[in-house]
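In this section we walk through a basic example: taking a raw amino acid sequence and producing a predicted 3D structure, encoded as C-alpha cells. The instruction is simple. Fold the sequence below.
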Amino acid sequence: MANPDMGWFAKARSRFEEGSRPQRRFGLLLWATLIAVICGTVDLGHPLEAVLRTSRNLIREHNASGQIVIVGIDDKSLAELPGWPWPRGRHGELADALAEAGARRIFFDLNFDAPSVPEEDEKLEAALTRHSSKLVLPTLAITDQMTERRTLVYPLARFARHAQLGFIGVYYDFRGVAWNLPYDSDMGGTRQPSFAAKLANVAGPPGQSFPIDYSIAPQSIPLVSAADVIKRRVPKQTFAGKDVLIGATSHQLADTFLAPAGGMLAGPYLHALGAETLISGAPKALGWFIPVLLTVALCAFACLLRKVGLRILVLATGMALCLLAPIALEAMRLYVDVVPALIMLVIVGGRLAWMRHRASVSAKAVLHPVSGLPNLAALRETQDGHKRPLVAARITNFAEIASSLAADQERALIQQIASRLTLGSAGQKLFHGDEGVFAWFADDEMAVTLTDHLNAMHGLFRSPVILADTQVDLTIVFGVEAGSDRSPSNRLGSALVAADEAAVEGLRWKEYDSARLKEAPWRLSLLSQLDAAIDSGELWIAYQPKLDIRTNRMNGAEALVRWTHPEKGPISPAEFVLAAEQSGRIQKLTFYVLERAIQAAAALNARGVSFAVAVNLSARLIDDAFLPEAVSKLLDRHGLRPDQLILEITETAALGTSAAHLGNLARLRSLGVQISVDDYGTGLSTLDYLKKIPACEIKIDRSFVQAMHRSAGDRVIVNSTIQLAHSLGRRVVAEGVEDRETLFALQQMGCDIAQGFYVGRPMPLHGLARQLLKERDELLIAAG
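The resulting C-alpha cell sequence is shown next.
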C-alpha cells in the first residue's frame, strides 16, 4: 500500500529550500563579508595567519644561496678570547683576517656608537681605514614607547667616515616575532638602506617592508666562529667573494629573537634570512583584500546554486584554495593573508551546513520513524483546522500487538490501519503518534456526518487485519474535540482524553465536553492553592470520635483534614490529599495536620480528659529519616505524651515497607508513639508480616464491617481478624459502624474500639471538646 501522506515529506524538505532562498543566502554573504573585512582591517586573524604561514614554511623549506657567511661571536669565541666586550682592536683583527681571506664585503652587526679605550679605538679605526671599501657599519632608530620620541643611533664619526652605513632595525609583532624587514629607514631626513637590502644589493620602495622567507633553513647559512677567523683556522675559500655578516650568536649576549616555528634565533640570522629572501627575488605582500574579494565572488556563485550539495562543494573548494594556493604563491614570491577569507568561508559554509542539518532534522522530527506519516509534533505545528473537528483514534490493544511483531510487520500493520482510517476521505492528512494513536482534522463534508462516519469506521475495524497469514483483531475508540481557537496541542489532548473516557465507558466514540475547560485553571493550580490554604488557615481539622466498646466512652478521635475554599466552598479531601501525594508534596500537609492534632490532644488532656488522637501517615513519609525526630519535637513542643498519638498507615503502605523502613516505624514505637494498620483486609497481609510490623492496633476496613449483616463470610472475616489481632497483642478498631446492631455484634466478638457515623460524625474541635467534657463531668458526678 502506498503511504497515504508521503507528500508531507516533500513539503517538509521544501521548508529548507524556502528558508535558504537566495535573498536570505545573500544576506548571509553580506554579513560574512563585513566580518571578514573587519578581521582583515584590524588584523584579528594574525595568530592563525602566523600558524598557517609557519606550516607552509615547513612544507617549502629549502637551503640558502651560500653567498652570505655569518661570523658568530659564539660561546667558543667567548671562551678562547675572554673579556667581553672585546677590545675594539680585536674587531679590527676580524676585519683584517676577513679582508685577507678575500671577503667581498664585511657587515658588522655590532654597535660602535660610544668611545672606548683610545688605543683600541685607534686600532679599529686603522683597520676600517685599510678596508673602507668593504666595510658596512650599523645604524639604529630607537622609539620610546611612552613618549614616542625617536632616537637615532650612529657609529662614532671617526668610524662612520671610513665605512658605509646600513639600518639594522627590526619590526616585531605582539609575540616578538619579526615577520617583515624594512627596505630602508628614515634616519633624520636621509634614507638608510637596511642590512638585508644592502646584502642583497636591492633597493626597494622607500619606506616599505617585505616579508621574510622563513622557509629558508637558518642552519643552511654558513656559520664560522669568530675565534677561528682571528686565529686563521678557516680556509680562505670560505669567505672569498662572499659577503660576511659579523654578529653575536651566543645566547649569553642576548642578541636573539623569537622564531616563528618556536625557539630563539640569533640576531645576525635575521638580516641574513632577509637578504636571502631578496636574493631569490623581491617578494610582494598582497595582503588580505584580494583573497577576500575572490572569496566574495566564490560565495556569491555558491549562493546562486540551487543544490545544497553543489554549494557545499564550491565552498569546500574555496577552503582548499585558501589553504593550498599560498604555498604556490609564496614559491613565486607572492605573500597573501588568507585568514579573513577563511573566516568568511567558515561563516557562509557553516551557516549553510547548519541550515541544511536543521532542515533535515526538522523534516525527520515531524515524521513518524516507522510509518513515515506526519507525527503528532507535525499536528501541533499545523496552522489550519482550527474551525474543524479534531478526531483522535486510539488502538487500545496496540501495545500488546506491537510487542509481538517485527519492525516490518509493525509497519505493515500501521499501513493497514492508515488505509482504513483514510477510506472514503481522499487527501486527508493523517497524523501518527506512538502507542497506536492517530489523529486528523475532519473536512467540511465529514464534519456534517461525523457521527455516522465514526460509527461506520468503528464497524470497519471489527474485521481483523491480516499479517503474514495471521489474523489480528484491533479494538479502537475515537475522541472528538469540536473546532475551537485553542492550540492544536491542547485540542489533541482533549480529543485523547475523550477517547480514553470512551474506552472506559465502553463507547465507540465520545466528544470532549468543553465545559470541563472552566475547571481546568482550578485543577492546574490546585497544589499551589493548597499551599496557600495551609499558610492562610483555610484548612481545618475535623475529629471523628472513637468509642471504647468495653466502657462505652470516647477515648480518642481520628484527625481528618478539611478544606473550605472561600470561593468554591468545601473541597473533597479525596481530591486534594491524593493530588498532594501524587506530586510528592504531602509532607507539608501531613505536618500541618500533625501539629494541630497534637496541640488539640494536649489541650484536652490538660483538662482532665484521657484522649488519644490518630493521624493518617502517608506512605510517602514512612521512609523519611527525619520523621521520628520531627514527631518527637512536636510532642515535646505541645506537651503530649507519645502514647497519646497514633499514626495510621494503610495496610498497602505497610506491606510495601522495606526492612529499612520498618526500622523507621520501630524508632517511632521506641518513642512511645502508637502505630495503627489502617484499612486492614484490603491488602494481602500474612501472619508473619503482621508480626514484623510494630503496630499497636489493627483497623478493620469499613467494607467488611458494613457487610456483616448481609454476608456471613464478612462476619467470619471480622471475627477471625479480631481473634488474630488479640493473639498478636494488638487491639482492634472497627471502622464504618453505622447502626446499633453492628456495634452490638462487635461487642459480642470482643472488638476494642468502634468508629463510624453511629459513634459520631467528624466534627470541629469545639464540638468534640464539649462532648468529651460532658462525659467527664458525668463520670465525676457518678463517682462522687
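Looking at the output, two observations stand out. Residues 324 and 464 are 67 Å apart (CA to CA). The chain has a mean pLDDT of 85. In the next section we compare this with other chains.
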